[in-house]
Design goal:
The protein is of the alpha/beta class. The protein is built from 17 helices and 20 strands. It is elongated and about 90 Å long. 39% of the residues are buried.
């Protein structure tokens, strides 16, 4: 199946008499030339459909887009058309802007620092200038009007047969004013938390490129977008462009910056972009079109390339909920500091040195173990599939597991169990119940099936206080066997007494950890204490 993404932006409809509104058939012809075999089309608007946000302008826009839909459906291969749209600064009706909105926007920095919630009354007042846009958006998509508390960030899931595309729409224009000021816009952090969705392609749409947002705030939006999207559609600057971005941290995505479909510079300035996705071959092709006075001519047609999918996006399907985040960052004691009222694990934790033991050689007295330096601990666990960690009651085993949870979470999907909850009994169904309960605890109930479908190599199981499981030997063997079959990495923490018990079983069929490496936590020496004092 081929899916065409038709990227339109900045139409700037004023009167409804603009010549661009008569070119639906010309856009259709260009799309047919670019994608003669496409069966589905999504028309993506990245803002500024109207010129001044008036209802009459949206009426003209709806007539034009209905005509475009009808023309596209005339093509023999196209069976379905969908629309997705975000507002731009020209989609704000400043003629009816309230005095309260003007007052709130007098000091943008103060407004930002006040902690603006998407569901607050202040946001509702600020959004009033976009009321006509959202009424139009509901009519265009044949859906319900988006509620006020979701208008800063809303999602659209489009399905064509067995394929799905998720569009996350960010309303960067909600703070726009009649005279737009660069770097004076922002989105509340709460609006940058898209709902995770499994889709073949995920796209982000917003009107203003990053440079129009506050310097600190644009970084938050950029990080969110580049961790959750494969494609990014923007408008506003009226210049077609974009490109492929690949970060050292793993993000890989495609930015598409729109030309204006209608510019004030003249008839020959307008254009649009299309991206054709062949879902069966896994390839894509980009086309840019410019109006030449008679038709939309292809100005740039790329060769077929592999569809860009962002490998980092999969991690965002498993996002820690607020309660689990609070628990995992809790250092376990009420530490305080003169520069920070409440300290978290990251503020005070340093990885300890570990002593790796070879129980085979230790039993013969041939080996005292090797030291794994603090700076190498994360890489050691990343490259070692099964480890039994031992230490005294106050050696920091729980904090070590919590920190590993975060540091391995960039590449894997971890869950953590406390052996205190095992209650001395285990079966295959009970093991699965423990796992599914933990997935819901750390992520959400919707993540359970997704977690169970993951490749085992992507799953990490962390088990704390295994010496308190109250398992009989056979139960220990069954539990570790279940864990081995389901998880690519299994890390178990127990006290020193349990390690000595395990040592006594080494070489027998009663040893559940015969395939595990064994490490003990060393006390902090002068080097690590000095580092801790400098935190």
């Amino acid at each position: 199946m081929q899916i065409l993404l038709l990227h339109l932006s900045d139409i700037h409809i004023r009167t409804g008499e603009e010549s661009v509104l008569s070119r639906a058939s010309k856009i259709k012809d260009a799309c047919h030339a670019a994608a003669p075999n496409t069966s589905c089309c999504v028309v993506v608007f990245s803002g500024d459909i109207a010129y001044s946000g008036l209802s009459t302008q949206y009426e003209a826009a709806h007539v034009f887009l209905s005509d475009l839909r009808d023309k596209l459906l005339e093509l023999p291969s196209i069976m379905a058309i969908e629309f997705v749209a975000v507002p731009g600064n020209h989609d704000c009706d400043f003629l009816h802007e309230s005095d309260i909105r003007q007052y709130l926007l007098k000091d943008i920095q103060k407004l930002y620092e006040s902690g603006l919630s998407p569901s607050s009354d202040r946001v509702k007042v600020i959004l009033d200038v976009q009321q006509n846009f959202f009424a139009f958006e509901a009519k265009l998509t044949n859906g319900k009007e988006i509620s006020h508390d979701q208008r800063l960030s809303y999602g659209r899931l489009v399905r064509f047969g067995n394929y799905s595309l998720k569009f996350q729409c960010y309303n960067t224009a909600f703070l726009s004013r009649q005279h737009e000021l660069q770097s004076k816009l922002f989105l509340p952090p709460e609006a940058m938390d898209p709902v995770a969705a499994e889709a073949n392609i995920c796209a982000a749409i917003f009107h203003h490129p990053y440079n129009w947002l506050d310097a600190a705030n644009y970084r938050l939006l950029k990080d969110t977008v580049e961790q959750t999207a494969d494609l990014v559609f923007t408008g506003h600057e009226h210049q077609a462009g974009g490109g492929v971005i690949e970060r050292f941290s793993g993000e890989h995505l495609h930015y598409l910056e729109a030309a204006a479909l209608q510019r004030e510079g003249g008839e020959l300035d307008g254009g649009f972009t299309s991206l054709l996705l062949d879902m069966e071959t896994g390839e894509q092709r980009l086309d840019e079109f410019r109006w030449d006075g008679e038709h939309y001519a292809s100005r740039l047609r790329q060769n077929w390339t592999t569809i860009i999918t962002n490998p980092v996006r999969e991690r965002q399907l498993f996002r820690l909920n607020a309660l689990s985040l609070e628990d995992l960052t809790d250092p376990g004691a009420p530490f305080s500091h003169k520069r920070k009222r409440k300290l978290r694990i990251d503020d005070i934790f340093i990885y300890p040195d570990l002593r790796q033991w070879s129980t085979d050689r230790l039993a013969t007295g041939a080996n005292k173990g090797r030291t794994i330096n603090s700076r190498d601990v994360v890489e050691y666990f990343r490259s070692t599939p099964r480890v039994l960690i031992s230490g005294g009651d106050d050696s920091g085993k729980t904090s070590l597991l919590k920190k590993l949870f975060f540091d391995l979470g960039s590449d894997y999907v971890p869950i953590m169990l406390s052996a205190k909850d095992f209650k001395g009994r285990i079966s295959e169904s009970r093991f699965k119940a423990l796992i599914t309960s933990a997935v819901e605890q750390y992520y959400d109930v919707h993540s359970i099936e997704r977690f169970l479908r993951l490749d085992p190599s992507r799953r990490v199981l962390l088990i704390d206080d295994f010496h308190m499981s109250n398992f009989a030997v056979n139960a220990e063997l069954r539990f570790i066997g279940f864990a081995h079959n389901m998880f690519g990495h299994v890390f178990v923490a127990a006290n020193d007494i349990y390690r000595m018990t395990d040592l006594s079983r080494k070489g027998t069929n009663q040893d559940p950890f015969r395939d595990f490496e064994t490490c003990s936590i060393r006390e902090c020496g002068h080097r690590l204490r000095a580092y801790l004092r400098n935190l």
